[in-house]
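Title: [Solved] UDP-N-acetylmuramoyl-tripeptide--D-alanyl-D-alanine ligase 3D structure

Original question kept below for reference.
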Amino acid sequence: MTLWTSEDAVDATGGTSAVAWQANGVSIDTRTLEAGDMFVALKDVRDGHDFVAQALANGAACALVSRIPDGVPADAPLLVVDDVLSGLEALGHAARARTKAKVIGVTGSVGKTSTKEMLRTALTGQGEVHAAEKSYNNHWGVPLTLARMPKNSDFAVIEIGMNHPGEISPLAKMARPHVAMITIVAPAHLEAFASVEDIAREKAAIFDGLERGGVAIINADLPTSDLLRSLAPHNCQTFGETERADWRLLEATSGDASTVCRASHAGDILLFKLGAPGRHFAMNGLACLAAAHAAGADLGRAAVALSDWAPPSGRGQRRFIHLDAAMPEQGIDLFDDAYNANPASVGAALDVLASATPPAAAGRRVAILGDMKELGETQDALHAGFATHPAMAEIQQVHCVGPLMRHLYEALPEAKQGLWAATSAELAGSPLALVRAGDVVMAKGSLSMKMALIVDAITNLGQSVADN
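Solution (posted by the thread starter after getting help):
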């Protein structure tokens, strides 16, 4: 299906094109570009203009540029604009203007991407669902997601993130959601914000883009819930465990690979299941059902479809690492939660680990934790504070990575202290010093800590089979 014609794109951006073309997709990376895509020459670590010739040689239908790159003829299929990012934003605005899809916007300190994927799953089968394949939630990710939206979409799920004040409002106004959800407000990016209340105000800026008559969905269990409610429009629904929640979680029973949930809404009981253990996943699942209902989807079908959801790699995915092909029961249970971290998500991950059953009677619960970044002046105390987290009572050993996690390491009882290293690469070099057969292990840290290196090292000890 044609996504953009040269005529449509010129009208949207005010740019120029010397030849006619048709694009079936939009790409910002020549490594993943497919034939027929529009290549967007964004400037990041490298200038995308340096890769235009390669993109066209690889089958790109056209390239969005601000100048004719060296080695590219003037009559090449180029959409020339004054500024590439502004051109991408214009395509995003145009795609949003032409769609008839119900748009759901998702933000929050934790759980944005998992919730976005839950919504994709819950809405599948009720129409064409569009959502980004990755965590594209920033100043270029949101317009890229919108620009990629097929014309025939029935639902669109747009993830909106931030690192600094003032980032969410313009993205929300671009996405113009019919339903705007805040998963949670927690200490994150405190280097850029004076308080958690200020973070809540920034998250509530997603309501700036809410369509007239749209629905706001907020968490009712937070210290900032009243503040969020005061900033939300009149049509606001809440989810949580408190009795006052419109969508109330009554029970969440976690097994080794799933969570069975019972909730209530408007006097009715809802049952749903998720393919991962964790009360935080149950809460996000309930929020998804609220959002799907507000977007006009069938609630019963959405609840049933949620059972097909499982977390992707790096976001709580569970794997069993077989260490001996002749003895399939010999292995390591691995929770890969390495993609990113802040205090709320680390606490949730520790709760999941504490409730997990090691695959062998002599197995241990092992946490491998990397630094949490952007926490400002409170960073040392926030790291050390996990030594007294209730889940730690059920965790036998903790390995720590990074100078900030040194504070946790030193606060732990000696019996729980595993290894400490400045970088993940140091621990990844000796995976057998971290875990042994029969253990259940969880790895988590901020993206810059590269905890995936440790996950890969443990995975490479054997043959990994993802649970489903």
